[in-house]
């Protein structure tokens, strides 16, 4: 079946005239008639009632109308998708938080390389606030951060969140009560978390405030790798994403009654001529984040 014939059918149905359709399609009226006849032969059904002055759809033509519109729309969508693959060359400046770097970034880069083999990535790893400022200045094309950006000419796509948990060293874990722990059980220990005013930082304070407690020491660290190293040295209890590639056998996940909220993630991009490419990369990020979440839950 030739989709051009379906386009011709839709044009005739819309205009109610073979002649008008021929003019819009820049073909002869005979060509339009031939295409419609071919469709009628292929489907063994008369699509138009030609006995009246105005061309009208038959019952069969009415049934075909919606289906034909879907086929044409699907073809247009396919062409748009494949055009993204074709034009997916050049460079994308991607800003992302370290939690993504140490969980599913490797899988995302692999997927991008498969889908867009000619595309170069320039990665910037910093806290969300810093990345947002660079994005606003036009220094970054695409973000994967913990905050949703709402602005003109900007699109945002939510990603599956990262699960957070409490971790500490084997030595510190051995000093804690057995069984399910509470906030008071760790209230005398230093805490190690993300940057000040980050979501994990604020969530940690909220959980302690709910027990009318305050951590004696609260280290705020930009680097996830640094958080892990400090925790391995027994310098406190840390909030870390589950399934991180930095997890080691010397880290112990604490069974704490007070669960940390999941860390939300968002892809954000500018509505430029490359917006469809950024959307395609964001959809790959959704798939990678989802797969990581499933693997972590096992």
Automatic annotation (TrEMBL):
Residues 1-58 form the HTH lysR-type domain. InterPro entries: LTTR (IPR050176), LysR_HTH_N (IPR000847), LysR_subst-bd (IPR005119), WH-like_DNA-bd_sf (IPR036388), WH_DNA-bd_sf (IPR036390). Keywords: DNA-binding, Transcription, Transcription regulation. One of its GO terms (molecular function) is DNA-binding transcription factor activity. Gene3D superfamilies: Periplasmic binding protein-like II (3.40.190.10), Winged helix-like DNA-binding domain superfamily/Winged helix DNA-binding domain (1.10.10.10). Pfam families: HTH_1, LysR_substrate. It comes from the Bacteria. Belongs to the LysR transcriptional regulatory family. PANTHER family: HTH-TYPE TRANSCRIPTIONAL REGULATOR LRHA-RELATED (PTHR30579:SF7), TRANSCRIPTIONAL REGULATOR (PTHR30579). This is DNA-binding transcriptional regulator, LysR family. It comes from Litoreibacter albidus.
